[in-house]
Amino acid sequence: MTAEHKVERKLFDEVMVPCYAPMNMIPDRGKGARIWDQDDREYIDFAGGIAVSCLGHCHPVMVDALKTQAEKLWHLSNVMTNAPALRLAKKLTEVSFADRVFFANSGAEANEAALKLARRWAVDVHGPEKSEIIAFTQGFHGRTFFTVTVGGQAAYSDGFGPKPGDVSHLPYNDLDALAAAMSDKTCAIMMEPLQGEGGIVTPDPAFVQGVRELCDKHNALLIFDEVQTGNGRTGTFYAYEQTGVTPDILSTAKSLGGGIPIGAMLTTEKLAAHMKVGTHGSTYGGNPLACAVAEAVVNEVSKPEVLAGVKEREGWFREGLEALNAKYNMFSEIRGKGLLIGAALNEEWKGRARDVLLAAGEEGLLLLVAGTNVVRMTPSLVITKEEAEEGLARLDRALAKLTAA
After folding, report:
1. How far apart are the first and last CA of the chain?
2. Known catalytic residues?
3. Do 178 and 150 fall within a single domain?
4. Are 150 and 17 within one domain?
């Protein structure tokens, strides 16, 4: 990149609202699971844009879909429908339990729609007193005021004044606590089938089954937040397929567009009927440009060989991380499913997940954290063995420097 086109990191501090603390390097381009910064330094990407870049950077099917649609229609508004949105909605009903789809721009918006649908259904069918929403501590459901309140992390929701009411939180994986708390006033349970931001926590199968049974007992809806776990991330198109439980409402986003902002709420025909004309909406939701790219992504990710490849790649990462742990003794366990992987730090390294992230960055590897004690990896679902091995080699060098310090 020429000096005249280079953007300095200090410009962020001058023009951006300071709610982020981005790395000093500024990416310039990407291909597959590799990124190059403005100085042409290469990085292996195990972060995947926080579980978004499911096909890596600039995958041909996404580039082709974007270019083709870019010369046809970008935006129409919901005064009209459009072919890419209808094709994508049809595909999502084919790969899930759902009959109906609502499009939005993000996971937070998809969850907002899910929560509004649950409350509207409860009012219509049972009356206004059935309004309680139960979620779980350390859960994460987005940053709108409603979704951040339902999310179980007070650090994200405190400090903005009075919160939306009738929302309560219980420990994840504690079925007895849920059974004691639920009543016929409970409108919905919202949960992640595998907690992402909360530390890559997999629930006990009996817990998920029990949640479904309690919802049925109390006439409450079960909402699965699959914003991070969906679209092939755990080795099935949606993670609920591995639980033996079917939700009433499901939210999806992040990797749905492979990098194009798009989210969706999926539900049944019976529940969708409560969202009548004018009940909810979105200016950009379902726009043809985003839907055309997402359609290409879903078509690619839903291929049996891609989903099988996720489980194969999980093996590469687990084997590599276990080998590193045998060498450095930093991890208490390797968590997660598919390519939503968490390396939980042991007592000696507790609280130092960000140190690992920064050390890896210095070696040309991009990682994530899930809290202060878990190093998170959400790479491309089609990452090559060469890219995975090179990334793990860079992590080896980073851990060697950390443990020697």
Report:
1. 35
2. 140, 225, 254
3. yes
4. no
